[in-house]
């Protein structure tokens, strides 16, 4: 199911402001790719352009190519809705639907699209997804309680369960652990390692150890100055980035000699 | 353990005035109220010196009462607490003054309206009634029918406009719509009535009278209120929820219907109910479009209808021979109208209670 992503010469704009420039990257299927870099360098922006969530913002647009298994995401006639069905996303802040129960949150992708599904199949899906997100044991007795009644870390795992319930081929995660305690963070990292078997995962993180722990490849974004577009400085296997990076800027950033 | 400096219990430090926590001297619980009332009493005396008047009593009383409270509190409790007490008494006074017209109104309407709040009022029309007896059966139903029609016209238009403005609109068109909605909010109700009158006269010829004319006039007043309140509520729906839905591959229209509207439904229900309450008591536009009849007409597409506000107006301005009977009916009509509006407010609260997103474990 997992797919490879090839990005070539991608420029990303907010109106007239060029936020990201000239990204070339190849993301292998069944791998975890970490994106690191200083705040405001365009990691989130780049991530959102991979499933066409970027264009939801008024005035935002993209130039260049994003090809997933040979299909250009930005080609004419490609429906962004179909793209997002294949490429799921977990956001930085947990955002369960406040009006829905835990159960309904997990099957939101099915329900909101009015896909017909038997009750038993749906129960299965809920159990499978919650187990996949390492949340089943904590919530199995209160599936009908509101999802917003969970703790922050549980909510984040609920959002992951919701994202994997629609069986995407790629999973994008924008700082999924930034609001979590070390234990929940570990749970999510373990989860990512498991999910890697089935999905292609791209994760944005500010946590260098996390990138080193979970990812197979790492991309370092940087920008030259305020108002300048962000660029992908280096993209290499994680061991290489963290042991002997090619670029001076990468080494400075990783060793904390930044700015 | 032994290395720790022993901490004195908090109570101990506050007893002797030497520690960091100074004991606060406080006025007894009801002292401020007593002082204030004493001030009011002195105020009453003062105004009695110059020929007693309620207004002067209130003015003297509030000033002196606040002053007493402030001075005593300042002497006993210190400056900060005294300022707090002063502001408290001023704010409470302002609240009491604001309540006066409301209480007076409710009292007057109850006092005058209750005598005729009987079964006959709800079951009889004014058909062939020239003196006592009769009721507002026809007018109550007329108000309900016309307001319901106005709601049926306004809610789809208003809600869809609000959805357009928050979810889809950009640029010029959005600005223009917002501007015209603002303008519509300020339209005097009589103008709305004349608009509807002119519109139906154009289509059906002179001297046409229909319930639906009133409904159209009310919609003109109601639509901007619905748009405004729904727009505010829809704006409150966090963008993250929309993005969460998009990221699951849900098309925009489904996101709007199933996530945005569903999340906002409590607020939408409340807003719409309150906008109904806003127009249900309108008199002027109904006066010129729907008119009044003494009998019962429940067909809003044919002929005049009775409505509560217009009913009350005519009972008051054109009493027949039994003046008191007409006056009583006018008051009772006003009372029923207030009860209707209050019922709508209760409904609005219930909607909020039942549909608001539930939290808790
Ligand atoms: N909605 C937006 N409209 C206009 N400019 C934006 C918008 N979102 C982000 N930007 C700009 O795009 C640039 C990149 O932002 P982005 O959110 O991608 O940074 P980031 O690398 O994710 O930072 P962080 O690590 O703090 O999350 C920044 O200069 C930011 O100001
Ligand atoms: Mg970001």
From TrEMBL, chain A:
PROSITE patterns assigned to the protein according to its UniProt record, in alphabetical order: ABC_TRANSPORTER_1, ABC_TRANSPORTER_2
A single GO molecular function term of this UniProt record: ATP binding
One Gene Ontology cellular component: membrane
Example of a GO biological process term: phosphate ion transmembrane transport
SMART domains recorded: AAA
InterPro entries tied to this protein: AAA+_ATPase, ABC_transporter-like_ATP-bd, ABC_transporter-like_CS, P-loop_NTPase, PstB-like
SUPFAM superfamilies: P-loop containing nucleoside triphosphate hydrolases (SSF52540)
UniProt keyword list: ATP-binding, Nucleotide-binding, Translocase, Transport
Superkingdom classification of source: Bacteria
Domain ABC transporter: 5-248
Official protein name in the record: Phosphate ABC transporter ATP-binding protein
Source organism per UniProt: Modestobacter muralis
Lineage: Bacteria, Bacillati, Actinomycetota, Actinomycetes, Geodermatophilales
TrEMBL record, chain B:
Lineage top rank: taxon: Bacteria
Keywords associated with the record: Cell membrane, Membrane, Phosphate transport, Transmembrane, Transmembrane helix, Transport
Domain ABC transmembrane type-1: 140-348
Topology with respect to the bilayer: Multi-pass membrane protein
A GO CC annotation given for this chain: plasma membrane
Transmembrane feature ranges: 30-48, 54-73, 85-110, 136-165, 177-200, 206-227, 259-280, 330-351
InterPro entries for this protein: MetI-like, MetI-like_sf, Phosphate_PstA, Phosphate_transprt_permease
NCBIfam families per the UniProt record, alphabetical: 3a0107s02c (TIGR00974)
Protein name (Swiss-Prot/TrEMBL): Phosphate transport system permease protein PstA
Organism, as annotated: Modestobacter muralis
């Amino acid at each position: 199911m997992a797919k490879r992503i090839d990005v070539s010469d991608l420029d990303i704009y907010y109106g007239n402001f060029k936020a990201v420039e000239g990204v070339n990257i190849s993301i292998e299927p069944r791998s975890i790719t970490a994106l690191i870099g200083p705040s405001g360098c365009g990691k989130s922006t780049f991530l959102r352009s991979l499933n066409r969530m970027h264009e939801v913002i008024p005035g935002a647009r993209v130039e260049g190519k994003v090809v997933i298994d040979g299909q250009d995401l930005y080609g004419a006639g490609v429906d962004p809705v179909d793209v997002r069905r294949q490429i799921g996303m977990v956001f930085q802040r947990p955002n369960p639907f406040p009006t829905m129960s835990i159960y309904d949150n997990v099957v939101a992708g099915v329900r909101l699209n009015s896909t017909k599904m038997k009750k038993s199949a749906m129960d299965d899906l809920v159990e499978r997804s919650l187990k996949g997100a390492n949340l089943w044991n904590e919530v199995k007795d209160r599936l009908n309680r509101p999802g917003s009644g969970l703790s922050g870390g549980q909510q984040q795992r609920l959002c992951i369960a919701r994202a994997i319930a629609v069986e995407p081929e790629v999973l994008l995660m924008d700082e999924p652990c930034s609001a979590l305690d070390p234990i929940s963070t570990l749970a999510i990292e373990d989860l990512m390692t498991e999910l890697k078997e089935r999905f292609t995962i791209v994760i944005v993180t500010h946590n260098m150890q996390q990138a080193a722990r979970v990812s197979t490849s790492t991309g370092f974004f940087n920008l030259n100055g305020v108002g300048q577009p962000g660029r992908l400085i280096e993209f290499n296997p994680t061991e290489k980035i963290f042991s002997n990076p090619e670029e001076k800027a990468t080494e400075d950033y990783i060793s904390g000699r930044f700015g | 353990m032994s290395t720790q400096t022993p901490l004195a219990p908090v109570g101990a430090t506050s007893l002797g005035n030497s520690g960091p926590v100074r004991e606060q001297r406080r006025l007894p619980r009801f002292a401020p109220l007593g002082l204030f009332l004493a001030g009011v009493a002195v105020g009453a005396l003062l105004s009695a010196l110059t020929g007693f008047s309620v207004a002067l009593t209130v003015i003297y009383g509030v000033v002196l009462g606040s002053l007493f409270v402030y001075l005593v509190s300042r002497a006993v409790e210190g400056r900060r607490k005294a300022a707090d007490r002063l502001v408290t008494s001023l704010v409470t006074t302002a609240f009491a003054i604001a309540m006066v017209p409301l209480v007076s109104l409710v009292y007057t309407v109850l006092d005058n309206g209750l005598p005729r709040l009987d079964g006959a009022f709800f079951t009889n029309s004014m058909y062939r009634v020239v003196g006592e007896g009769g009721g507002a059966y026809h007018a109550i139903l007329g108000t309900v029918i016309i307001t319901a029609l106005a709601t049926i016209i306004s809610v789809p238009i208003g809600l869809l406009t609000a959805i357009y403005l928050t979810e889809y609109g950009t640029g010029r068109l959005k600005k223009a719509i917002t501007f015209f909605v603002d303008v519509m909010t300020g339209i005097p109700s009589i103008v709305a009535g004349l608009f509807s009158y002119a519109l139906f006269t154009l289509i059906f010829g002179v001297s046409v009278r229909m319930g639906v004319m009133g409904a159209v006039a009310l919609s003109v007043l109601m639509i901007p209120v619905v748009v405004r309140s729904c727009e505010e509520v829809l704006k409150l729906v966090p963008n993250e929820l929309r993005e969460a839905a998009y990221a699951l591959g849900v098309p925009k229209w489904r996101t709007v219907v199933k996530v945005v509207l569903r999340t906002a439904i409590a607020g939408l229900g409340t807003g719409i109910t309150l906008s109904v309450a806003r127009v249900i008591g309108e008199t002027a536009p109904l006066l010129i479009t729907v008119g009044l009849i003494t009998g019962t007409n429940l067909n809003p597409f044919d002929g005049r209808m009775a409505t509560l506000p217009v009913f009350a107006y005519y009972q008051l301005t054109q009493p027949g021979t039994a003046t008191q009977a007409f006056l009583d009916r006018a008051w009772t009509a006003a009372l029923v109208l207030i009860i209707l509006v209050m019922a709508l407010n209760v409904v609005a609260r219930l909607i909020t209670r039942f549909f608001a997103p539930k939290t808790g474990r």
